[in-house]
Amino acid sequence: MNRRRNFIKKSAITGAGIILAPNMSFGGTKNNSNRLRVGVIGVGLRGTNHLNNLLKRDDVLVTAICDIDPSRIEISLNKISKSRKSKPKIFGKDDKDYLNLLDLKEVDAVVISTPWLWHTRMAVDSMRAGKYTGLEVSAANTLEECWDLVNTHEETGSHLMILENVNYRRDVLAVLNMVKQNVFGELSHFRCGYQHDLRFVKFNNGKQAYGGGVEFGEKGISEAAWRTQHSLLRNADVYPTHGLGPIAVMADVNRGNRLVSLTSHASKSLGLHNYIINHPEGGKEHPNAKIKWKQGDVITSTIETAMGETIIVTHDCNLPRPYSLGFRVQGVSGISEFDHHTKRIHVEGTTKGHGWEDMDSWLEKYDHPLWKKHGPGAKKAGHGGIDFFVMNAFVESAKENVAPPMDAYDAAAWSAVTPLSELSIENNGEPQDFPDFTRGNWIKRKPFNWMKDSY
Ligand SMILES: NC(=O)c1ccc[n+]([C@@H]2O[C@H](COP(=O)([O-])OP(=O)(O)OC[C@H]3O[C@@H](n4cnc5c(N)ncnc54)[C@H](O)[C@@H]3O)[C@@H](O)[C@H]2O)c1
Description:
Number of helices: 15
CATH class of the largest domain: Alpha Beta
Shape: globular
Helix content: 25-40%
Distance between the termini: 24 Å
Mean pLDDT: 93
Number of domains: 2
CATH architecture of the largest domain: 2-Layer Sandwich
Bound molecules: nicotinamide-adenine-dinucleotide
């Protein structure tokens, strides 16, 4: 099923949309449309965002969509009709109807944005059906699932891209550029994490996704319908990739380096209970006030890499706090701490004295070629522009049927933090070994060239 498509790669960007040269063609496939034909599984809040970005592209046809919630299908069809694109085939009559989407010959690539427990099984089925597969974060829930992703990729030759959009943040890519140009010298230590007050997302009243209610599960909608259950039953870093993805690329993980072991600790769990008892629709007598939440409010994991770096990853989603991924990159020549609220750097021999230097001029100097090229058009794509870049990388890689920037090995290694942190916490911080998902090949795998301006 390793079909190679030879798009004639003459593309021009207008705004966030891509217009292809009129004589563009696929080679060696039955696709006469000259476009990548995409099926979208899961058109909830995230999938709709991907759909929007796909609809803006002239090199993509959305040929099928699947969601078990008819209201989401209706919203998607309205968007498709407004964009004057042709109506896709619709699936979603039951949980397994996505398999019928995967049977379609007129689907070359698949974007999966469903709840976490569906991720691996849908991605595995999609790769088995020979589709170029894009999978939302995190990719897997257990170590077995991490292996399923890798094994299926290797058995089928179908590619898997983990759709980690934070890897495309402007500051992240500028710092990656600085890393590649040796600004920090040999690297030693990193920090990152997902620190985002999600109490408003984890609870609602089943009517609106944000801002009302203390219900979840069957009484909630969107992420309250499924994500909150993970906080109830798992004491683990259940969402490691927004922080770890960018750092793993800077540290060449799976390409000359690898994640070796981890220790994790969890604070007590106060945040979700406190939210329920203080919410106007909750209170001490509310049935959900009696729930004992398993997930600690702040979970801290320390990872060791084969090349001797340490990476501290934090999961902090149940307490009031401003959003922060808290990046820190530190090497023998300097250090940077950066995020939306902080941008500071210290480089020995360049920064005056022992203090911090404002990082704006550095970010400008090392601005990534992708952002220079597509930045203005990308801004409206979602999450400050990064959603354009991640979908652009997916589409361009799928058109060529080449390995994506973030592949099955990355999906497995980054997502493995969830089950490993759970085991470590359960065992009082006992170290847990990462499986080597590359089967030793990390020593010779070459880093993806992140510095090009195409994707
Ligand atoms: N990268 C990011 O910035 C980002 C942001 C938000 C969410 N996400 C990720 O995207 C994924 C989806 O999150 P969301 O916020 O859109 O959740 P959501 O609940 O709004 O959407 C999930 C959709 O999947 C559908 N679904 C469930 N089971 C299905 C099945 N068997 N077949 C077809 N459809 C099915 C649901 O009906 C729903 O519409 C999650 O993995 C989440 O972590 C990523």
